[in-house]
């Protein structure tokens, strides 16, 4: 009995990109792609996205087991913390009984929401890894596109200009608009600006409007093999993502902060973070 004919559709193309087709069907897809350049371009884009995600999230078995997951350390923490946990629970129950609001109070005691800046830094690093190696589509709109910064400013609801980093050896390539998040403590859309130096080394800025609390925050962290320098004030948030020495990224941060926030040197906090 003969099986159904092999149809080259979206599912078949995804299976091809994921390496799930047998040799004869891969050959059929490749022949078909040669005659359909638009589909070939889309398949190439999927392949690049898979490579970027693979670079961000390598197989778990290659990673060393974190010290915090060591069974002996876990058992020790359980033993030493059990009595303290019981005392804390008893104290909480007493307070809740007096207040008359058990569920809501326990939520406030035991659950703390991740700070928004943590998600902003993560999003900035992921977007950097996804686009920084692109050759033809590194940016959505080139630096000389009409009204680029006005468009991005309107979308993030905060007036921004592309910082001038020529003195630091970087040329502005352009930018793109990235989606925000939904939810109670979400942030809005983000503008990603990309720069490149003479050695073809790139850095990106991930910029959003001010957060609701408008607090001034500084964070310098290394995540997924790159440095992320985050700062926020009452006008804007910005995360600089690059592979640079700490002194260099802090110097860039000072220049970018002064231009985006339009504040004098006296407001800069180079030792924070």
Give descriptors for this structure:
single chain; about 270 residues; alpha+beta; Phosphorylase Kinase, domain 1; 7-stranded antiparallel sheet; 8 helices; 7 strands; about 45% helix; disordered C terminus
Shape: globular
Looking at CATH, the homologous superfamily of the largest domain is MucB/RseB, C-terminal domain
Architecture of the largest domain, CATH level 2?
A: 2-Layer Sandwich
What is the CATH first-level class name of the largest domain? Alpha Beta
Q: Tally the helices: what do you get?
A: 8
The profile of the biggest β sheet is: 7 strands, antiparallel
Structural class: alpha+beta
User: pLDDT average, as an integer?
Assistant: 81
The topology string of helices and strands comes to: HHHHHHEHEEEEEEH
Rg over C-alpha atoms, rounded to the nearest angstrom: 25 Å
Mind explaining what this structure looks like?
This protein is of the alpha+beta class and 273 residues long. It has three domains: 10-56, no CATH class; 67-110, no CATH class; 116-267, Phosphorylase Kinase, domain 1 (2-Layer Sandwich), CATH 3.30.200.100. Helix content is 44%, strand content 17%. It has a seven-stranded antiparallel sheet with strand order 1-2-3-4-7-6-5, sandwiched between helices.
Write a brief structural summary:
The chain is α+β, with helices and mostly antiparallel strands and 273 residues long.
Topology:
Blueprint: H1 10-17, H2 23-34, H3 37-56, H4 71-99, H5 102-110, H6 116-131, E1 141-142, H7 148-156, E2 170-178, E3 190-197, E4 202-208, E5 217-223, E6 226-232, E7 237-242, H8 246-261
Antiparallel strand pairs: 1-2, 2-3, 3-4, 4-7, 5-6, 6-7
Helix pairs in contact: 4-5
């Amino acid at each position: 009995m003969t099986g159904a004919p092999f149809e080259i559709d979206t599912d078949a193309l995804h299976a091809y990109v994921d390496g799930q087709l047998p040799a004869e069907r891969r050959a059929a897809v490749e022949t078909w792609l040669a005659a359909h350049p638009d589909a070939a371009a889309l398949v190439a884009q999927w392949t690049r996205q898979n490579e970027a995600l693979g670079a961000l999230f390598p197989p778990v078995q290659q990673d060393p087991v974190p010290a915090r997951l060591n069974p002996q350390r876990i058992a020790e923490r359980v033993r030493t913390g059990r009595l303290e946990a019981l005392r804390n629970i008893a104290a909480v129950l007493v307070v809740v009984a007096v207040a008359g609001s058990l569920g809501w109070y326990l939520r406030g005691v035991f659950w703390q929401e991740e700070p928004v800046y943590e998600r902003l830094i993560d999003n900035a690093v992921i977007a950097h890894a996804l686009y920084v190696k692109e050759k033809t589509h590194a940016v959505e709109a080139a630096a000389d596109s009409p009204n680029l910064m006005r468009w991005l400013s309107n979308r993030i609801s905060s007036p921004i200009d592309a910082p001038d980093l020529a003195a630091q050896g970087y040329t502005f390539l352009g930018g793109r608009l990235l989606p925000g998040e939904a939810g109670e403590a979400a942030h809005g859309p983000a503008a990603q600006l990309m720069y490149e130096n003479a050695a073809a080394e790139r850095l990106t800025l991930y910029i959003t409007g001010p957060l609701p609390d408008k607090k001034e925050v500084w964070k310098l962290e290394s995540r997924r093999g790159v440095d992320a320098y985050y700062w926020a004030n009452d006008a804007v948030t910005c995360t600089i993502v690059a592979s640079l020495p700490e002194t260099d990224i802090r110097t860039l941060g000072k220049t970018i902060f002064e231009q985006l926030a339009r504040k004098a040197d006296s407001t800069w906090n180079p030792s924070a973070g």
